[in-house]
Design a protein that fits this description.
The complex is a heterodimer of chains A (375) and B (130).
Chain A (H helix, E strand, L loop, with lengths): L2 E8 L3 H11 L3 E4 L4 E10 L2 H11 L3 E5 L7 H8 L7 E6 L4 H9 L4 E4 L4 H58 L11 H29 L6 E5 H18 L3 E6 L4 E5 H17 L6 E9 L2 E8 L6 H5 L22 H10 L4 E7 L3 E8 L4
Parallel strand pairs in A: 1-3, 1-4, 4-5, 5-6, 8-10
Antiparallel strand pairs in A: 2-3, 7-9, 10-11, 11-13, 12-13
Helix pairs in contact in A: 5-6, 6-10, 7-8, 8-10
Chain B lengths: L2 E6 L3 H11 L3 E6 L2 H10 L4 E5 L7 H12 L5 E5 L1 H5 L8 H7 L3 E4 L4 H16 L1
Parallel strand pairs in B: 1-2, 1-3, 3-4, 4-5
Classes of the chains: A alpha/beta (375), B alpha/beta (130).
The complex binds adenosine-5'-triphosphate (ATP) and magnesium ion.
Adenosine-5'-triphosphate (ATP) binds next to helix 6, helix 8 and helix 10 of chain A.
Chain lengths: 375, 130
């Protein structure tokens, strides 16, 4: 469906007005750059005064304005309109190209000039340019609004995620304060442990959040070096092993020898840590984790498989978004903020890369991250 | 015999705390989400229910309340929420017209004062029995 744009012609020559109206009637213009089409609804006026009224009433998108008019001139109208706060694009129609008028008109917000006489093709060309600009502005505005909405949503979920552990710890502290479990201090061991675990989770959330803002704000200078993947992944496995060993989970690595990958070591570490931590966290006791890393035609391919709880297709579809956690009986005791994988995805995009998952409930999951050249 | 009270919250620590504070007074049955609770309710009849508002969806508590009331309108339902302070939204289950869609007999906010919660459960059960 072509987008309808309102065009107003102000010119004292009736022939010019009908000519333009006729040229634009039933005409559809393609805007290939933004994949849209526009068509026009034309209204007209012979004087600036009447034109001004029409503008106030119907707020046209594009104004074709003659300079030499019987009463108020085109330029005077332009000044009166104070275009700064409006989206209307003004194209001046001038018979003689006086530089002074042109400069003055531009100063007052005119978008472009069309020299009389012009052909219908020239008119359409000009309108194509102007419509492109208008539609682009519209899209930019929509995008900005969407961004604002997402920001708000992010903040409300974040508040919730930060408040839950706080409320849990607060509840436990109150139980301790009121000695609700009696005077035997060992009765409180469990709730102290739980409080510490919740605080740990909160800390993780805050760190994830810092990673996320660092990626998004692009403030931190990325340090691209020739990263030795073997060394780095060894380090990440050691970190993951702490949790894994407690639950009898074995981590096996199959890493191509001697890979040197130009990247920010910190970013690769965050990716590996998140994938490994998930593979351990969502595994069964005495399960297994396999990490394979290959270097293939400039691409780094990381695969992390586990023998854990897995997930349904429906669940895996939304996994890489902020704060998405799968809530069911299998996951509810496992803490997390649901930011890990969205951080991984955002980092992968910085390498022109991708993340994907294959999974089967109660069998296991395989996460694959492909990284290309640093962007 | 203690009265059976269903408690549903997606935060396991919150369920643990309710258990610590109220197991003397009620026979507590716990669930961590709407689905689990609905499944439980197929086989168990409860005397009252205490539900968290935000679980798998932002209004899972309301949906569950509706489900419970549809089975037995006399079952007292209390919804617990921290939504009020977070969003400035205010749910007060007071006027009859609000009752028609909220389907909860009382709405309390976190952090929970257990004395108040106990009192509220008991009051509602008496009211419904009368
Ligand atoms: N290896 C896995 N096996 C099964 N489910 C997984 C696996 N990895 C992630 N998930 C599911 O995807 C969800 C999102 O994972 P993500 O890493 O983004 O968050 P998280 O682990 O909950 O929290 P954190 O931000 O602390 O990592 C998890 O909550 C879990 O339900
Ligand atoms: Mg994770």
């Amino acid at each position: 469906m072509p987008e309808l744009l309102k065009v107003l012609v102000i010119d004292d020559e009736p022939g010019m007005r009908t000519g333009i109206t006729r040229a634009l009637r039933d005409c559809i213009i393609d805007l290939p750059d933004i994949g849209q089409q526009v068509c026009f609804e034309v209204s007209q006026s012979g004087t600036a005064e009447k034109g001004y009224e029409i503008i106030q009433q119907s707020q046209p998108n594009i104004l074709l304005l003659d300079h030499k008019l019987p009463g108020m001139t085109g330029l005077e109208l332009l000044k009166k309109l104070e275009l700064k706060n409006s989206d209307m694009l003004v194209i001046m129609i001038t018979a003689y190209a006086s530089v002074d008028t042109a400069v003055e008109a531009t100063k007052n917000g005119a978008y472009d000039f069309l020299a009389k006489p012009f052909t219908p093709a020239e008119l359409k060309n000009m309108l194509q340019k102007a419509s492109g600009r208008l539609m682009f502005q519209r899209q930019a505005r929509k995008l900005a609004e969407e961004k604002k909405r997402l920001r708000f949503e992010f903040i409300s979920v974040l508040t919730h995620e930060l408040k839950s552990p706080l409320a849990a710890v607060e509840g436990y502290l109150n139980i301790m304060k009121n000695r609700d479990l009696g005077d035997n201090t060992s009765a409180y061991d469990h709730i102290i442990d739980r409080s510490l675990i919740r605080l740990e989770g909160m800390k993780k959330l805050i760190f994830d959040l810092l990673d996320l803002t660092r990626i998004e704000s692009k403030q931190k200078k990325r340090e691209i070096t020739q990263v030795e993947i073997n060394l780095l992944s060894q380090h990440c496995i050691e970190t993951a092993n702490v949790e894994a060993q407690k639950r009898g989970i074995v981590i096996k690595a199959d890493i191509e020898k001697g890979i040197i990958f130009p990247s920010d070591a910190n970013e690769i570490e965050i990716i590996l840590n998140n994938l490994l931590s998930n593979a351990v966290k969502y595994n069964r006791d005495n399960g297994r984790v396999d990490m394979a890393i290959k270097h293939d035609s400039e691409k780094l391919i990381i695969k992390v498989s586990d023998t854990g709880i897995g997930m349904t297709e429906e669940e895996s579809a939304k996994l890489f978004n902020d704060f998405v956690r799968i809530k069911n009986a299998k996951t509810h005791k496992i803490l997390g903020s649901g930011l890990g994988l969205s951080v991984v995805k955002k980092l992968a995009l910085l390498y022109n890369g991708s993340v994907s998952v294959e999974s089967q409930p109660d069998v296991g999951s395989t996460f694959t991250v492909e990284l290309g050249k640093v962007l | 015999m203690l009265k059976k009270v269903l408690i549903v919250d997606d935060d396991p620590d919150f369920l643990d705390q309710m258990e610590i504070m109220m197991q003397k007074d009620f026979d507590l049955i716990r669930a961590t989400n709407q689905k689990e609770a609905e499944k439980l309710l197929e086989t168990v009849t409860v005397d009252a229910a205490v539900l968290d508002l935000m679980m798998e969806s932002a209004d899972a508590g309301f949906a569950l309340a509706y489900h419970i009331k549809k089975k037995n309108p006399a079952t007292p339902v209390i919804i617990i929420t921290s939504v009020m302070s977070e969003t400035g939204m205010d749910f007060e289950a007071k006027t009859p017209e609000e009752h028609s869609w909220i389907k909860a007999d009382a709405i309390l906010s976190k952090p929970i004062r257990y004395e108040q919660l106990k009192h509220e459960i008991q009051r509602l059960m008496e009211e419904k029995n009368a």
